[in-house]
Amino acid sequence: MLLSENAMGDSCTKMKESNIYLHIGHGKTGSSAVQSALALAKDSLLSLGIYYPIDSSVQSKASKFGITSGNWSHIPEQSLGRELTNLLKSTTHNSSLLLSSEHLFWHMDSLFNDGNIDLDRINLHVILAVRDLEEMLSSEYQQLVKRHGETRPFELFLHSRGFVSSHHRRASQLLKALSHHGIKTTVINYSKRKSRIAEDVFEVIGAKDAYP
Q1: What are phi and psi of 31, to 5 degrees?
Q2: What is the end-to-end Cα distance of the chain in Å, rounded?
Q3: Chain-wide mean pLDDT for the chain?
Q4: Is the peptide bond before 26 cis (omega within 30 degrees of 0)?
């Protein structure tokens, strides 16, 4: 499997199992396929001790391979750390918690910046999928043309971005922060694993047998 894990996080998991898995995307890395598989396998996951909380209507749509935002939505007035702590307290399943949403990719900062949250006690495992740089730059350019009427030639767009996609720049920031806080992190190269991205996520969370 083409995966990588940070060394600090790996040493932590040898002492205790993860309580919360966060699959955070980013965009254009097969998140919808992952979330459809998770929705279909919700009961099987729970039997393995992994709780994937999801609204029934969202689960129905995802199970039919519709596009959803996963099972997490941003709450502006609450830090991610506080939300995760409350979710752990509210669950009665005595299971590891699994959240999947591309929105998490852009909202992780409140987790790192909340001085009232002890990250060591939350015990996180973050799963991040990335695409090759050339593919992501092309995708971002196409989205700008489609949604915002971008008219600059591709070459000028590349120069304006410094030949680095906004997703890669953000991923680099996140990986540094995750490493700094000793949070276990698995990175999957979607460009090389796109045909089995969902299977890879199931394997990372230790639920290979639950893959539908």
Answers
A1: -60, -35
A2: 19
A3: 89
A4: yes
Position 119: which residue type? L
Report residue 142 as tokens.
């196409």
Q: What pLDDT is stored for residue 190 in this prediction?
A: 97
Q: Please tell me what DSSP assigns to residue 52.
A: -
Cα–Cα distance measured from residue 154 to residue 173, given in angstroms and rounded to the nearest whole number = 25
Which DSSP category does 195 fall into? G
Task: Take residue 10 and report the two structure tokens written for it.
Answer: 């790996």
In sequence order, which residues have a C-beta less than 8 Å from that of residue 157 and are 6 or more positions away?
Answer: 137, 141, 144, 150
Burial 51-77 (b: 16+ CB within 10 A, else e): bbebeeebbebbbeeeebbbbbeeeee
Interaxial angle between packed helices 197-204 and 31-40, expressed in degrees from 0 to 180 and rounded to the nearest 10: 60
- Strands 184-189 and 3-5 turn out to be antiparallel
Tens digit of each residue's pLDDT (9 = 90 or more) over 73-84:
888 888 998 888
Closest CA to 189 of 133, 130, 125: 130
> CA 140, 167, 196 angle in degrees (round to 5)?
90
- Residue 109 CA to residue 76 CA, distance in Å, equals 12
184 three-state secondary structure: strand
Q: Which residues contact 11 (CB under 8 A, 6 or more apart)?
A: none
